[in-house]
Amino acid sequence: MSRISAAPPEIEIALRLLPGRDPDLPPPAYATAGAAGMDLCANLPERGEMTLAPMARAVVPTGLAVELPAGLEAQIRPRSGLALRHGVTVANAPGTIDSDYRGEVGVLLINLGDAPFVIRHGDRIAQMVVAPVARVRWTLSTRLGDTRRGAGGFGSTGLGGDER
Questions:
Q1: H-only helix segments in 10-153
Q2: pLDDT band at 17 (very low <50, low <70, confident <90, very high)
Q3: Is 96 annotated as a binding residue?
Q4: CA separation (Å) from 11 to 36, 67, 130?
Q5: Taking the complete model, does pTM exceed 0.90, yes or no?
Q6: How far apart are CA 34 and CA 84, in angstroms?
Q7: Domains by residue range for the chain, with CATH
Q8: Which of 95, 110, 122, 163 is the most exposed, fewest CB within 10 Å of its CB?
Q9: Long-range contacts for 20-24 (Cβ within 8 Å, ≥24 apart)?
Q10: Across the strands, what pairs with 72?
């Protein structure tokens, strides 16, 4: 078994703190050395809070804008703890920030839980993963190559050993 021990390369990306961004909030940051995503914090007006009722959704501001290089995107993903404990997730997961977007990074949260959820200023509400983007040029074809799976779709590979 081989091990990858080299740290991934770091990419410098411009980050802008927008007017009204609380200077005491941390920038997006990795919680651990092996984390793929950087935590994003809620930047609520007047350091306040907002409540998401069950099945409600809202865009939560971060007070940040980014300048991603061409060929990269930023994906906004849920935080697993919020999803597990409260049913709060990113409604359009993953949300995408394109390299040509310069507006505020907003997080579209939805409360799928059965109780109201309070978002407080500074709460870690989502994570951002920067990833490469492949550009596609389609080639029309009358036939696609064969595979073992073929056209088997939803559920075609089963659940596991017991095939419930």
A1: 80-86
A2: very high
A3: yes
A4: 14, 12, 10
A5: no
A6: 21
A7: 14-132 (2.70.40.10)
A8: 163
A9: 20/45, 20/63, 21/62, 21/63, 21/64, 22/47, 22/63, 22/121, 22/122
A10: 132
92 marked as binding residue: yes
Residue given tokens 């920038």 in the structure block:
27
Question: Is 161 annotated to bind ligand?
Answer: no
| Residue 54, amino acid | P
Is the predicted pLDDT of residue 162 greater than 60, yes or no? no
Q: Where are the beta strands (DSSP E) in the chain?
A: 14-17, 29-30, 38-41, 49-52, 57-61, 64-67, 72-77, 88-90, 95-97, 106-111, 117-120, 124-132
- Determine if residue 80 is labeled as part of a ligand binding site: yes
Nearest residue to 38 via CA among 132, 124, 111: 124
Is 156 labeled as ligand-binding? no
Residue type, 55: M
| Under 8 Å between Cβ of 111 and 117 | yes
6 pLDDT higher than 90: no
Angle (CA) 156 160 163, round 5°: 70
> Is 22 one of the annotated binding-site residues?
no
- The DSSP line for 22-58 is -TTSPPSEESSTT-SSEEEE---GGG-EEEE-TT-EE
